[in-house]
Design goal:
3-stranded mixed beta sheet; 302 residues; cadmium ion transmembrane transporter activity; Cation_efflux; Alpha-lytic protease prodomain-like; mainly alpha; Alpha-Beta Plaits; cell membrane; elongated; 3 strands
Length: 302
Amino acid sequence: MTTKQRIRRLAAWSIVVAFGVMGLKFVAWWVTGSVALYSDALESIVNVIAGFAAFWAISVSHKPADRDHQYGHHKAEYFSAVLEGVLIVVAALLIMGAVWRSWQDLSPMEQPWEGLAINGVAAAINCFWALLLIRVGRRDKSPALEADGHHVMTDVVTSVGVIIGLVAAVLTGWHFLDPLLALLVALNILWQGWKVITSSLDGLMDRAVPIDENMRIRDIISTNSAGALEVHDLKTRIAGRATFIEFHMVVDAAMSVGESHAICDRIEAALGDEIPSVRVVIHVEPDDEAKLPLGTAAVPFA
């Protein structure tokens, strides 16, 4: 199975899992009448919508480059992640409205243990699925899949907190804990939504690779640039699962086009072996463009 097929299959199954978990949580709310469980169920609606958005974005991002999108469609996944963050914020505002209404009429839950057990099953399913999405999303550089996983994990944390709090409410008879927990849920997912949005906007702004990845790229270039005199103006950016690398390579002015092209091919092949979905642009320059004194044993970076 290819990376593309694996990511699309996980994105499709996320929709199925989200529908199943949402159904369980609404049953838990219906059994208990708890506003905290209602808030948990509301967040699951966002999971379903986000699942559809992630599937769309992943499908678009894997389309090959065309005349109108000559660098590919990789950034489509960031739009999905931004939408997911916005939906999380909307869910938080809906929960706050439910909290306000519940605070006006505090009442004990009905059949609390049955409802909490159902919600616990939903949380366990979500936890397994979130860990899988985050792991595969990071490995295959899929922002939409990873964002979906983090959102689902937020749902897990929310559910666990709600269950613990409601158990305390049942045992103590402190009914105000129910709307109070729902308010804490809303504040938590507001924070998570903000983090998803800012992270995705960072990607849309052509963020460079992390410093450790930058150093690895420099090492690969230096190791495979025998015959060149200098490398400078290294620039990188990340767009979804693709990494774009651009730099200038100085060679002897007397070197033939064929010889300099062979060096470029060697560097591109080495980068491609180490970095998935890499795109490399090398600008070859004569030695009078060098920025450092020439003649060192290793190919220096300026």
